[in-house]
Amino acid sequence: MKKTLLLMCSAALLAWGSAAPDRAAAASSRARHGAVASEDGEVTRSVTHGNVTIDGRRIGYTATAGTLTLKNDKGEPIASQFYVAYTQDGVVDRGARPITFLYNGGPGSSTIWLHMGAFGPRRVATPDAQTALPASHALLNNDDSLLDKSDLVFIDAVGTGFSRIIGKGTPKNFFGVDADIGAFGQFIERYVTQTDRWKSPKYLLGESYGTTRSAGVVDFLQEKGVAMNGVILVSSILNFANDVTGPGGNDMAYILYLPTMAAAAWYHDKLRNKPPDLDAFLQTVRRFAAGPYAQALMAGSQLGDAERASVLGKLHEYTGISEKYYRQADLRLDPERFQKELLRDQGLTVGRLDGRFVGRDIDINGDSPDYDPSDNAISAAFTAAFHTYVADDLKYRSDRPYNVTNYPVVGHDWDWKRKQDPLGAPNVSGDLRDAMIKNPGLRVFSANGYFDFATPFFETEYTLDHLNLEQPLRNHIQYGYYQSGHMIYLHVPALAKLHADLARFYDATR
Hints:
Elements: H1 2-6, E1 14-15, H2 23-33, E2 35-37, E3 43-54, E4 57-72, E5 77-88, E6 99-103, H3 112-119, E7 122-124, E8 139-141, E9 151-155, E10 164-165, H4 177-194, E11 202-208, H5 209-223, E12 230-236, H6 252-267, H7 278-299, H8 305-319, H9 323-328, H10 335-341, E13 349-350, E14 358-359, H11 373-376, H12 379-392, H13 407-411, H14 429-438, E15 443-449, H15 457-465, H16 471-474, E16 477-482, H17 492-509
Helix pairs in contact: 3-12, 4-5, 5-14, 6-7, 6-15, 7-8
């Protein structure tokens, strides 16, 4: 999964301190100049104003693009972490107004995807599944911004965006599962303190590896006395042992990926008798995957000929892949092979982040795709859009290059070991469970794209269904499903549904 998530898509040693200038002085400086600079001239804060229309309602907001300094347990600066915050104007009781901290994953990704594609006040005009975005982007009013329900703080992980290691900091302070949890925990607690948001309902919203981060951070903060109202998991990966690139010999991944393969086959009309209702069809596939298919894989070489023939027939029926191909693969088909094989007769491959997208490979006879057409379709446009937006709209300029992604550095040095389980694959589901038990008021919303081959929805269901929670707490987990991929918001109707689902979630949990 390390490679999988990199392609998307500290040990809690950080202590609390303050690095921001005096708030009154900063406010005065912003009023005069709109930006605050450090002694070396690096801009640390720029404040602008704008408005967004959501469901016909015009909302004025203040945007703050800035950095917050993280410190070690000796009070020494170790990182400058970049963020963009949006707060609704005209709020009488700020303590009653929710605040949400948002971030993408990677590890090694900035947060431009959630910021410019999903929940910020402006979004990139996204393509349909057949069209790549031109580098000359269009920014639209975001009708589905979450500013109607919450103030928003988009955070770039250290090593991405404008966030950098400084002073006494080292990669070990940030580039690891536990280190990353500690860094984000420090940022959030200090931001809440500096902006006087302790009374506000508080939420975490992470995507992809950002869900890994959220599960750890919510428990980390709970131990610090910072209780969250909600955790929003968008395209989750909590237990890496169940991923297809996890420990060898683990058949769970084949079981958990099967419904996603079926969804892609349904979308691309590769099923002999295509069911009209996708939701009902996938429920049938779930039952098969967890039943006869799982039993067949567990049987191994003891599987009888009749049982094998029956399972092969169903695999072909549900995925469109030939029985011969599945037989040669010993019933076990990696998602990359599926993505290459499903549309091979048309010379096309299926996207990984979003199985609705297709592309043409350089090597048509290969076993796996040469690239991800869903990623290729959007990256240039999002990159150009953010660079223009941060300079022209947010008035934030820096001599530092903005690292949209930094996988070769951040991902390469990532420490996947956890303090409590240094030998196993990373698993933060226990952190989420602990937080839910300690804070019975905590609610979880899990958003899932049916065509997501990076973090398949059935794997998420399996993980959350195995938290070993009592029935009342199990009811605190809600699910949303969307006919989209890993980046649910690339499909505009799915984004609208996601906004509606989250609006209800906020209303029920604030």
